[in-house]
Structure formats: structure tokens, C-alpha cells
Specification:
This protein has 252 residues and is α+β, with helices and mostly antiparallel strands. 56% of the residues lie in helices and 21% in strands.
Length: 252
């Protein structure tokens, strides 16, 4: 039992045997410790020196020969406590070093219409242009009591949006009936794409270093914001590629 537990504390099997032999003998020469521990004398001498270097044994000279004795076992607890205190002070500094280079995107989750509207507000409060995909037919159904005021605020702050949406009857009528003031003010650009080839079932917005996604399915009313510069840049590139394709098609 003692052997197993001391080995868990970092003792080798040979060190355990030598240390226990020293305690039982009250000290001894390498030869007597070797005999008690059932080990070779030369090997035991090296083991005793290791124990001495670790602070668990000391030696003195008797008749010109090294006589070893064990340090009080309390030293084991003291050393562990000292190492724990050192680690306790050191670990926060090591974590700070890790955090400097660690990639840890910030992710926020929202559930229900009232929480998801936080994402829409975050768009207005952000800097720069907002890029995205949307579907006004399902978005209007979900946020009917919220959108009129939202559009007014977007126009008032001059927030620039560049969006892709489905090219269907509802979205075409919605744009003409609800969004022309922002389009004429130059704060909103919209291109409609073939809904059969490019269905839009979730709304996605890229702005600053964030990518927000809103589920437009009532059964899974939720949204996320992922804050990551590299992720935002990649999604911005994907949107710009889609925008280029849509505008090039219209130009032809």
C-alpha cells in the first residue's frame, strides 16, 4: 500500500524501497539499506543519492563512509504544498499566454421572437455595411409587429444593407410597398434570385466581425451570432461572390 501511494507521488519503486528501509532502520550505510530493501548495493547508492537530491534523505560521514538517514516524512507534505502554491500562482500566467494566441470565437444563442430581435438591433448598432440573405415573406410573418419600426430606425440612422432575397411575387410586392424609401435613400440594395434554384429558408447577415443566422421556421425559432473575424471574412467573400453572380446575370 505504501509503495503504491508513494509511487503516485513521483517516487520510483527503488526510491520507495530505499526510503522505507531508511525509516525502518533509522538510517544506514548503502550496504545495510540495500540488504533491507533487497536491492544491489551499487544501485542502492545511486537511489540514495537521488533521494538526497530530492530532499528526502541526507547523509553524514561515519568512519569515512556515507551514512544516510531519512528526512521526516512531513517533508513530503510540505514539498507538495510548496509545489501546489507555486502552480497556483503560475497557472494564471500560463493561461494568459495561451489566451494571447488561442482562437476562441464568441458565440451567442437566442430563442424565441423576442430574443431573436436582439440580432436585428445588433445590425443597426454595428459599424459598416450589412450583407445578407433574407426572405421577406416568412420574416414578415414572424416579426410583423416589429418590422415597421425597425425599417424607420434603419432609415433614420442611414444603415446600409445589401441583401439577396427570393424572386417571387410576395417579395417583389413587399419591396415595392415597404422598402422603396430606403432604396431611394441609397441605404438598401436588393437583388432577387430564383427561389427554386436558391431557396432562402434562413436569414443570414454578415457585419463587422460577426455572422448572424436567424431561423425562419416557426418550429425552430432561434438565432445565433458568431463573432470571429476570419469567419466573417469568409462569409463576406461568399456573399460577394453570390452578389457578383446575381448582378452579372441581371446585367446580361
Amino acid at each position: 500500500m505504501i509503495t503504491n501511494e508513494l509511487e503516485k507521488l513521483g517516487f520510483s519503486t527503488e526510491e520507495v524501497n530505499a526510503y522505507v528501509a531508511l525509516l525502518e532502520l533509522g538510517g544506514g550505510f548503502a550496504s545495510s539499506v540495500a540488504k533491507k530493501a533487497g536491492a544491489h548495493r551499487v544501485t542502492t547508492y545511486n537511489t540514495l543519492e537521488n533521494l538526497r537530491k530530492k530532499g528526502f534523505a541526507k547523509h553524514t560521514k561515519r568512519k569515512g563512509i556515507r551514512f544516510y538517514y531519512a528526512i521526516n516524512p512531513q517533508i513530503i507534505l510540505n514539498q507538495i504544498e510548496d509545489r501546489y502554491n507555486i502552480a497556483k500562482e503560475l497557472v494564471p500566467e500560463l493561461l494568459d499566454l495561451q489566451n494571447i494566441h488561442a482562437f476562441k470565437p464568441k458565440i451567442q444563442f437566442f430563442e424565441g421572437v423576442s430574443e431573436v430581435t436582439h440580432i436585428l438591433n445588433d445590425l443597426l448598432n454595428s459599424g459598416g455595411e450589412v450583407l445578407g440573405f433574407t426572405n421577406y415573406e416568412v420574416a414578415t410573418d414572424l416579426f410583423a409587429d416589429y418590422l415597421d419600426d425597425y425599417y424607420d430606425r434603419a432609415l433614420k440612422v442611414g444603415k446600409k444593407f445589401r441583401l439577396l432575397c427570393p424572386n417571387d411575387k410576395f417579395n417583389a410586392m413587399y419591396i415595392k410597398g415597404r422598402l422603396m424609401d430606403r432604396i431611394e435613400a441609397g441605404t438598401l440594395e436588393i437583388f432577387a434570385v430564383n427561389p427554386k434554384m436558391f431557396p432562402v429558408k434562413n436569414a443570414q447577415y454578415i457585419y463587422g466581425d460577426k455572422v448572424a443566422t436567424i431561423s425562419l421556421d416557426k418550429k425552430e425559432m432561434m438565432g445565433t451570432i458568431i463573432e470571429s473575424e476570419s469567419n466573417a471574412e469568409t462569409n463576406r467573400s461568399i456573399f460577394n461572390l453570390a452578389w457578383l453572380g446575381a448582378t452579372s446575370f441581371v446585367a446580361k
